[in-house]
């Protein structure tokens, strides 16, 4: 397997400087969350470092992979926002030689979440949202919530993201709605 330094170099080669710096901050934040939650720090760190590896690949590359590698054709209705995680894991496995399904699943779920999320899934999902470079209304509360209670951080993020997508009249990927329905507080 590639060392951490080799992975960092490969990720950097595929991303703008600012996007790479985001990946480093997600790596650091994922390490903190893993320590707080007695989770696998090594896996959390690698997931953070590589999670946006595919973010700047051209659409045609994703479209070809969706056709050739047996992905759900429904994905073609969406775009890079959804593809870079769900399909990005395929490029991470191929190019970075990461075959660990715990890491790959965390990457697959880092944008859309999932009804059932492992601790590493939750750590990456939340670290991406609260890393110190993020600045949006509610980020302070998102950080406080996530550092106090990881699952509460996931719930806070899903409620915020769905609200933001609907306010912007964005198309919602059905699995994002499944995530929302599974994590939204129980109704009376
Ligand atoms: O890659 P990052 O910018 O670090 O963050 P991300 O991968 O969590 O999210 C990328 C974008 O995807 C973000 O603006 C929110 C958006 N997104 C999440 N779920 C959906 C979505 N966009 C659409 N259109 N539909 C979704 O269901
Ligand atoms: Fe992302
Ligand atoms: Fe995210
Ligand atoms: Fe990210």
Question: Quick recap of the structure?
Answer:
The protein has 188 residues and is mostly helical. The chain has a single domain (4-183), classed as Orthogonal Bundle (Hypothetical protein af1432), CATH 1.10.3210.10.
Q: Low-confidence parts lasting 5 or more residues at pLDDT below 50?
A: none
Q: Give average pLDDT, whole number.
A: 97
End-to-end Cα distance, whole Å, is 50 Å
Q: How many domains in all? A: 1
- Using DSSP, what is the number of strands? 0
The CATH level-2 architecture is identified as Orthogonal Bundle
Q: Write down the Rg.
A: 16 Å
Based on helices, strands and strand pairing, what is the structural class?
mainly alpha
Number of contiguous helices: 11
Helix content: 55-70%
Largest sheet features: none
